[in-house]
Design a protein that fits this description.
InterPro entries: Prepilin_IV_endopep_pep, Prepilin_pept_A24_N, Prepilin_peptidase/N-MTase. Belongs to the peptidase A24 family. It is found in: Cell membrane. It is a multi-pass membrane protein. This protein is mainly α. Helix content is 71%, strand content 0%. The protein contains eight helices and no strands. Helix 3 runs antiparallel to helix 4. The model has no long low-confidence stretch (mean pLDDT 90). The structure holds zinc ion (ZN). Zinc ion (ZN) binds next to loops.
Length: 254
């Protein structure tokens, strides 16, 4: 446990930096801008931002959520994305320790943070983000894989295939972004946890729909972005899915 706290600050800072980068990726891809150019600027006044304006979390707090140059409000999504990524990194590090698999966990957290932002903002899960995730996931999986490689390969097709069938059956209730996201999740999670993620995400989505319905908030044409539910379920299953399966098996076997 002593070692844990030794590296803890580095993991949190890395999480804040990656979270900050994923914010930029998410916002710029939605606006169809390049991720690297132009340099960071205020979305309201276009004033370019100095390093002091770009410190994750701290700049937002010091500037009290307003642009230094035009005083326009900075979206709370930025600090929230940074804090969430840092918290997830710390949690992953706590669960996995300093291991090769930790990098896969970081990749999962980073990609999911970005797609939650884009899905909440624009009901979109951009191909670019998911494809980048797939490429990194394949590289990482060739290097480190707790399950046999074929398990991840099958999960890549099984998760997305199942979603593709649901998408056809529900006639547009499920987006193409969700399907590709599940292909990525397959590479990270393997078959069992991918299917469990689909089950848990659907359960959470349904419960949320029922709550909205009970509160008379659900209109007929109301579409709820499914991405945040998939992301939450995937993260939970990646961290504790195996324990959940073990617990369930013990319970039914007695
Ligand atoms: Zn500004």
């Amino acid at each position: 446990m002593g070692d844990y706290w030794l590296y803890f600050p580095f993991v949190v800072v890395l999480g804040l930096l990656i979270g900050s980068f994923m914010n930029v990726v998410a916002i710029r891809i939605l606006k169809q801008e390049s991720v690297v150019f132009p340099p960071s600027h205020c979305v309201h006044c276009n004033h370019s931002l100095k390093p002091l304006d770009l410190i994750p979390l701290l700049s937002y707090l010091f500037l009290r959520g307003k642009c230094r140059y035009c005083r326009a409000a900075i979206s709370w999504v930025y600090p929230a994305g940074e804090a969430a990524t840092a918290a997830l990194f710390a949690l992953l590090y706590w669960q996995l320790g300093l291991s090769p698999e930790l990098l896969t966990g970081f990749l999962l957290a980073a990609i999911l943070t970005a797609i939650v932002i884009t899905d909440l903002k624009s009901m979109l899960i951009p191909d670019t983000i998911v494809l980048a995730g797939m490429i990194f996931a394949v590289i990482l999986r060739l290097w480190t894989h707790p399950l046999p490689l074929w398990d991840y390969a099958i999960a890549f097709f099984a998760g997305s295939g199942l979603l593709w069938i649901i998408a056809i059956a529900s006639k547009g209730g499920m987006g193409g972004g969700d399907i590709k996201l599940f292909a990525f999740l397959g590479l990270v999670l393997g078959i069992k946890l991918t299917l469990l993620t689909l089950f848990v995400a659907s359960l959470m989505g349904t419960l949320y729909g029922l709550v909205l319905f009970a509160m008379h908030r659900l209109q007929k044409k109301h579409t709820v972005p499914f991405g945040p539910f998939i992301a939450t379920a995937a993260m939970l299953m990646y961290l504790w899915g195996d324990s959940l399966i073990e617990w369930y098996m013990e319970m039914i076997m007695g």
